[in-house]
Amino acid sequence: MEVKDFDLGLSAMSGQPLAFYSDYRRSGATEILTYPTQLGRITVSASKRGCVSSVRSSCSESHYKAAAEREVVERFALDEDLSDVYARIDTDPFMSQAISELSGLRVTKNDPWETVLCFVISQFNNIKRIRGIVGNLSKAFGEEIRPDGETMHLIPTPAALASADLSAIRRCGTGFRDRYIKRVAEECSTRVDLGELYDLDYAEAKERLLALHGIGDKVADCILLFGYRKLEAFPIDTWVKRVVETKYFKGRKRSIRQIHSFAERRWGDLSGYANQYIFYQGRLNKIGT
DNA sequence: ACCCAGGCGGGCG
DNA sequence: CGCCCGCATGGG
Fold it and tell me: What positions of strand B are covered by protein, i.e. any atom < 7 Å from a CB?
């Protein structure tokens, strides 16, 4: 299929959940992304011609081919017109440049539980290590699938992690996050139904997430943005805080609350899109360091 | 050696 | 509400 404004590599590897459990490589002009799902292993390849990408998806279980295509369209929001988004978040020269340099970066739609797990692990951590920990947990506690005879592991379910020994979780390299992981897995496999949050508005859903142990303001916003695709969420990590202070407040310190308020006034219900461009543009160019 | 990483919970004033 | 602290681990 042909898609306008889609960059597979930027969308998958810019710090969203796929960056923690997929494999990405480039082969000449073609980009190839592989990740495990309930359907089996999904492979997405894309080649760009100008602002249009030719996208092909496949599944190791060939009879799920149509389902794999739907999965890819939904995960990368390929039916969303990015030019509308750009028109609404392009409020200043910094954002204009970010949009221009990161053209085709899309906010992805991920499984809520997988997003919870990834971002509980993300706290006080770096992307490379998050990848390692998610991989170790998947290997230790995730269901094994064998596409084409090759072994892969799904991300572990809440029940699998809830019944795991704390020390076995710790051995996956989680550090002090072992308790958060086990406890949030217990909550999500018993009294908490993450599926209910789809129907709640942003503020109500955030309140529910904040009630879970190990989920604070920033992680809750990541889950709402990447797991439920509530585009008004504006996760504020160290990068976003620094970049916003540098680019929008002349380098003066601002509180998390002030930055939330600033983003809401400026980008409204598309704050999450602006956030992803700020975050990745800031990282690539080390803005504020 | 030191510093940092897509922060959070708990305790304090 | 804001501020401060400890927290595990690996890479620059």
Answer: 4-9
